[in-house]
Amino acid sequence: MKYGAAALGAVTLANSGLYFLLQQATRSARADDEEFRTPIRFTPFTRALPIPPVKQPGALFTHRCALPSVSGLNPPKFYTVQMKKATAEIIPGHPETVIWGYDGLYPGPTFRVNHNEPAIVRFSNGLSVNTIVHNHGGHTSSESDGSDSVFPSQVIPPTQSRDFCYGNIAPVNPATHQQEISDFASTQWYHDHMMDLTGQNVYMGLAGFYLLKDELEKGLIDGGTLPSDAFDVPLVFQDRVFDQNAQLVFKPGANEFDGWLGDVFVVNGKAQPYFNVQRRKYRFRLLNGSNARWYEFQLSSGQFLQIGNDSWLLPFAIPRTSIRLGLAERADVIIDFRDAPGEVFLNNILEQKEGTGPEGTTRPGTPLLKFIVSGSPVSGDARVVSGTALRPHTPIRPEEIVRTRRFVFAKDHKWVINEQEFDPNRSDATPKSNTAERWILKNDGGGWSHPVHLHLEAHQIQKFNGSAPAVYNSFKKDTTPLGPDDEAEVFIKFRTFTGRYVFHCHNLEHEDHAMMAAFNVIP
Ligand SMILES: [Cu+2]
Distance, CA 485 to ligand 1 centroid (Å)? Predict the structure, then answer.
């Protein structure tokens, strides 16, 4: 017994559905412990990859959302999403797994929305726990950002609903009052962000894609540079543990909240699925939606052509042999199957035995997804190749910086930033609207890895451990992964909205315990 009942007693758990699992926990939850291995065996690549349905707008309703005051906004579209329990077949042959899903789906439905077309989404909570929704990578007003409990009025108690207002705009340049189209986002994802419960709520299934498109991206697609929506596939990668009844097991307190790892690899809610593809280029939005597991993706044949990083298209397409994603990071990639063999595996070559962070790489690694390639190469395929121009990048320049702040991520008795636990009533930074700042993000080491996510705005990595970042990381990011002792210097500009937001480690167990801080953008 490495950790006994005392440690487990500290678990914040407002939900009875998982309580019986906690009662079973009497030992450390290291991923290599026999007790926490899924006892169910299955044959991988026997189930098709699920593609989450596209969320359809519905009838308009009375709301209290304040739409952003920018010119050119179209009338909003209205959506209603019900959070509820359902059963799903995650492991082949076991349709009885209880999940918590947006619209009862795991992952949730995919939003596909357009620039200047606001989405007003009414989220109703049919679960027995508090929830709140964050649209990750979104440029969203403070009232609708879902920045944890810094806005208690956005918390959705059971049986209640709240409206979230997504402007689907780019940040506004204060000099011209025009939107900065260079900063318009593509690949966001929405997920739960409820203080103390985020790890549990996301693990149980509360996550989905939120994909945006503007005139520039539409031009790239309609003009034949990028694949059309039919060949644009979101892929969320997660790891899960199941008990003998195929129910999800979540016991983060058993390993001192280092981070909860699973031993079953799940893509779009299915354990190790296959995907039938034509001989053409596909666009995939790779998302690390795990609680604590990092991935490094590599193909068994061929390579990736990266066209986007986190939410934003890159200025030009960059070939990548492998792509590492920390928690919540995304990579928007093209895979070209025209000359591929009949089977291509997407492998995870990163080893990780503890929730603290990843270890070394191993090849060929673990196959997560099998592509079955058939037919003849299509004609008139998407033209994107290495170096193809995509979205222009407007850098934040050093002469714009008005202030430097330093944030140290470390472990005290809890996970802390600058030696303080999260307090939703405290603002740890008060940047002025329409100014840019330099933030130093430092991991104080100890063997832990912390992917740091800043809400509201993209940031630009200037230096990573004193050097220029890799080219694919040198434009816009919303999450910067820090390994042990790493230090990133980032520039961030605060535009369009004032008010309170959070930044935090995106290892969800670290975030819940309590590696998060609030900033308040002041006029
Ligand atoms: Cu962390």
Answer: 12
